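Page 37, top half.
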Amino acid sequence: MADRKGEPEFLDDLVDIEAELDEEQDVDFSEEELELDELRAERDDLKDKFMRALADAENARKRSDRDRREAENYGGSKLARDLLSVYDNMKRAMDTATDEQRAVSSALIEGIELTMRELLSVYGKHGIKVIAPAVGDKFDPNQHEAMFEAPVPNTSAGDIIQVMAEGFLLHDRLLRAAQVGVSSNPG
């Protein structure tokens, strides 16, 4: 009978050992699962950081390309602005020359005209365009600077009545607005 009493004890021990093993496996499994979840969260966080860094790098590349293009196109704007007075002075010289002076100094006048053409050609190569409004054109505040307003008969308000100086564009930016007089007639 002692064997029979030992059997149930042995079987009870087996049942207890199996229960302990099941608990350990459950604990191990849940620890592994927690570790796997942590690793997934870390992976997702690193992936998000990588994608943000990639987007930042792409934005920096685009910004540097834009800055390089702007430097190429507009880097010489100070020099171009300074050279506008050369054009203005040569134009004034040509406008004030009388027919008599043109006849006497034809070689000089021709030299000034050639120099002006060359200057305009160089301006064109570098994206500088002349804004040359005419009397009677409508005033455009984006390209013209009103130097004065005056009521002039047979004009309507906003008409250009006099052009003092031509304006210039560098690519799509205004270097200098054309200086004009504008009619202030009410109708």
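Page 37, bottom half:
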Amino acid sequence: MNRSSSDSDELYGLVRKVLRLSRRFGQTLDEPLESSLGLNIKELLVLSAIMDGAATPSAVAEAHSLPAPTVTRIVTKLVEAGLVQRVTDPSDLRRQRLELTPEGAQTRSRTRQVGKQIVEKQFGHLDSAQIRAALEALSALEEALFAAPSPLPKAAPKLEARL
């Protein structure tokens, strides 16, 4: 599709605004969630991924595009907090599966309640039509993002591979 320069500028501005809003949403939610639940957003994302069936650290990392060392550190914290347990895979003793403990499941459901309260306080003044319009616009962006091939160039080969 050929766009005018003005349309391209607006589209670029839209994407920049979404990125800024994403960071701002994180800031708005992070502190109240951490003070209420003792966990930050990344930790809650990991907890959520495990609840949704991501049974290994690599699956969690992939589900939320997080670096593996970050997931390992967060999983260790969640295990120490009693929210997640590592279970050795009986068919391959080298592998460990991640499972929520009952306390982890309770924390996950409390997260939803606290999150809804924060969102209502921050955005409760928006009317239904505004919310639906925003959802439709963001859904269209999401669909386009996942339908398009990745615009990122492949990484340059490592030096050793070129020698």
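Margin note: The beta strands are 84-89, 92-100.
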